[in-house]
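PROTOCOL LOG
Step 1. Enter all chains and additional molecules of the complex.
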Amino acid sequence: MKVALIGNPNSGKSSLFNQLTGLRQKIGNFPGVTVDKKIGFCRLNNQTEIEIIDLPGTYSIYPNSLDEQVVLEILANPANKDYPDLIVVVADASNLKRNMLLFEQVNDLGIPTILALNMLDAANEVGVSVDSVKLEKLLGVSVVEINAREGIGMQGLKMVIARNLESPKVHLNPAVIDEKDKAIVSQVTEKFGIKNEYLAAQYLAQTPKLSFLSFDQQKDLQALVEKSGFDADRFQSDEVINRYADIAHNLDQVISIQKEEKIKETFSTRLDKILLHKFWGYFIFLTILFVIFQSVFTLASYPMDWIDENMGALTDWLKAILPESKLTDLLTDGLIAGIGGVVIFIPQIAFLFAFISLLEESGYMARVVVLMDKLIRKFGLSGKSVVPLISSMACAVPAIMSARTIGNWKDRLITIMVTPLMSCSARLPIYTILIALVIPQNTVFGIFGLQGLALMSLYLLGFFSALIAGWLMKRFMKSKERSYFVMELPTYKMPRWSQVGFTIFEKAKTFVFEAGKVIIAISIVLWVLSTYGPGDSLDKAEARVIAENPEAEQTDLDNKIAGARLQSSYAGMFGKVIEPVIKPLGYDWKIGIALIASFAAREVFVGTMSTIYSIGGDNADENTIKARLRNEKNPVTGEQVFSVATSYSLLIFYVFAMMCMSTIAVVYRETKSWKWPMIQLVYMSVLAYVSALVVYQLLK
Amino acid sequence: MTVADLKLGEIGVINSFSDSKLSLKLLEMGCLPGTEVKLDFIAPLGCPFCISVGENYQLSLRKSEAATINISFPLN
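Step 2. Run joint prediction.
Step 3. Record the structure below.
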């Protein structure tokens, strides 16, 4: 049995989904599109378990964005594998009139429905009370009062769902198809063998949006529309106006409003006076961003140091107790070095996602959209691009997907193209290590950590280059399409900590398993490539070093041998091949290996570096990644490899470089063409190379 | 007179729309002819506008979009 949750944005649909399914959910994709499809399982009683699908929030079944289109595609197509047996319409009781529009449309499609009245407490606060018993009688379908935030009414809702699955009910609305459209609608019902007239009308009104119809069917429908003069826009606006009249008539009988004499300023309105203030608004926004970066750096450093030390200790311990062999080396230098490179960044990723989900949860993100709209419109973006841009500080993949809420294609495409310039959490590891190498741990004015400031400026660099790139693209792209900004401004809410916890858990899990798989696999491959070489070249190199340095001390000799072995391994050969290209940027062949390895996913860089540099270094105190890099010396000149110039050059390179297969794949899926991801890859690579070159040559 | 001409805190009643495509979106969000709208905020740089729709919820829209909503003043 399939039950779908549907409702307006901000109606509390997702909270209800979490309440009903707990942690028993999985996130997939709707076929063909990358809209998140959240499915969970819920046990109603001893016998029945149902599958619950959380549909994207929408105001009506007339979509304005690709997210919303998913709802139409499922509900208008009984053959869809996600077509529900029952729909729970989640409605915000404090704004019931608008929420009922979707309810009526869903019913007219002939899908059995339950109405879940949410946020009754918020309604009471503004003096609105709803007689749900009377409403149930009036509508003829079950009406359930719930509080999704607190989890109140869940048992009742489950019971009602179980009852409705046995005896489904549909509410009947007054007809929305008027006399003059009757004839053409009945032609559609006959031709397509569908019984439902409202569905037939949707075939006519939204032909191009129903992708399950074949090309010929769409052509037939278009011909019908043209012949009969069916006006889709008029049909839609008449429908909405008629429905609202009916809804108002129904709700007048069940809603009582107790107005206080003087309308109090609500908490949200008062807060908006400050947060949307022309000076304080921006000041607070920048402060919030600043606090995020400071805490991502400072607070997360404690668990990170702890993890780093323990991974080092684990390596030492294993090396001590296990017999010296290639297998032990694979375990310590390959596998554990790789895992260490993954685990250490969990704290930072958790902090970042915690802040982003707090901004979303509290309703502040919508204010940021309002604050920024006019500012970034000049750069070919829209205020709504702010959400993808900020989310991209966590990960570009979901961020690019969230650009779907931007209705206008040009705005959306520019957003997609510039979003990967924002520094994502996969760049954090690289920034962290390199900043720690070159920026002292000082504070300025006593409170601002210099390293945190450096981190923030890297993020700002990414942000400003995204703006510039957007501005350039705006020049080159032509579009006649109108863009709408219109959006609901949700009231401020206290964030639900469980929801924040959910997000952190989910994102950290995704990072560990998805990115982790790649990182560990590459670490192991890398270990193999750097431990073996063609023929016996490694042994020859070792013999040569021993012959050349007859009087060297044992540790010095060991390091020289390890270096020589790495140099003549397969990995060393790859590194050598690209060295001429990257030398002007200040990188040696070892960094070259890491660059190649991180081409698929930039987060591999640090893991790779630690794998490469752990081969050969076996001093106990050198087993933390940072220490290893710091001690790395150029064997010829004896200079530090990670000099200030090289480190800055690498930092800048990673700010701009598009090193992420997943992003390329998601851009391809979102734009449905290879043209855009390829343009993106080229422009970002050129930008990265040139900027790193300039930085190195200036600082050298 | 349109929503874009409202002063802060002023209330108007929606009459009609001058942009039919945008009106479809506004209609489904509850901006129906006859609904009262109040201008709550104007973002710091003069755009977007934030309006209350029928005292139920807040809508944010650009000034150019606000200018497509024709209004009259309520009778009281």
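Step 4. Note key features.
Chain A touches chain B at residues 59-60, 62, 64, 94-95, 97-98, 101, 126, 233, 236-237, 240-241, 244, 263, 268-269, 272-273, 276-279, 281-282, 366, 369-371, 373-375, 383, 482, 484-489, 491 (CB under 8 Å).
Chain A has a mean pLDDT of 83.
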